[in-house]
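User: I'm putting together notes for a lab meeting next week and I want to include a structural view of one of the chains we've been expressing. I don't have a solved structure, so I'd like a prediction I can at least talk through. The sequence is below, exactly as it appears in our construct file.
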Amino acid sequence: MINVNFLVRSAVTRDQQQIANLMFFETHVHRHLDWRTPLEWLGSPFYWVVENDGQIIAALACPQDPPGIAWVRLFAHAGHFSLPETWDALWQTASQDLSRAGGATVAVIALHDWLRDLVQTSGFDSTQEIVMLEWNGLTLPQIIKPTGIFIRSMTVQDLPVVAEVDEIAFGPIWQNSLPALNKAFSQAGFATLAEMDGRIIGYQISTQNPFGAHLARLAVRPEMQGKGIGAALVADLTAELLRRGLMRLTVNTQDDNKTSLALYDRMGFRRTGEHYPVFTLEVPAE
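Assistant: Thanks for the context. Below is the predicted structure for the 286-residue chain, given as structure tokens.
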């Protein structure tokens, strides 16, 4: 039963400071691995808060990007209130609003056990796991670049075609929209393309950090997969990392993506032992 003193409403930009306080000072906080911070999504549809006597005590954001796909990008909760009760208040409103808007696939990477328990109670199903892998820089993958393949730096003008490659290379919940790729490119430490006959057939975007780099995105056109394009992009990246004195590269992929796992194993990546379940729920249209 929802506390009668709870008010669930859409988040607005003036809520930024209170939501930031929840994010940075509370224990129960989930932040999606995203190119945009949760506060940057303020003003978007499908972002709600719970108030108690005028004070924001919880927030939930699952804006759609691309359309029809709604990742849980933020759930934050003040610890002195009931966690299940505030989640239920927000999720009831979220599912109703999403349904009225035409329905959506809602997905969440459960980085915390408490979040896993909440979404399971709400009917989400675990569909796969994200696994983390690491390359330690001790060996340089010996990959022969396929004949006719040219690897070059990505430019902002390439992004519309990159978005097309991304859309056909991934299933719906894993696709990055053009706005997301623009944001990714602006944060990239390394971004390269594979071309054949002047046509973009694959790309990678990686971020740099104090410990090395993270391969955030690797995609190859489906008809060109299995021809060494992805391996060539990763080998080019690792060579560049070593030239810059960076000895660590991490990547994550789905545990059922056997092709990617085989590629990274061949390139010298090893599992770190970190793995996180992915939960999804289909919210039907009203």
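A couple of points you could mention at the meeting. The longest helix spans residues 83-100. The domain at 6-123 is CATH 3.40.630.30 (Aminopeptidase).

User: Perfect, that's what I needed.
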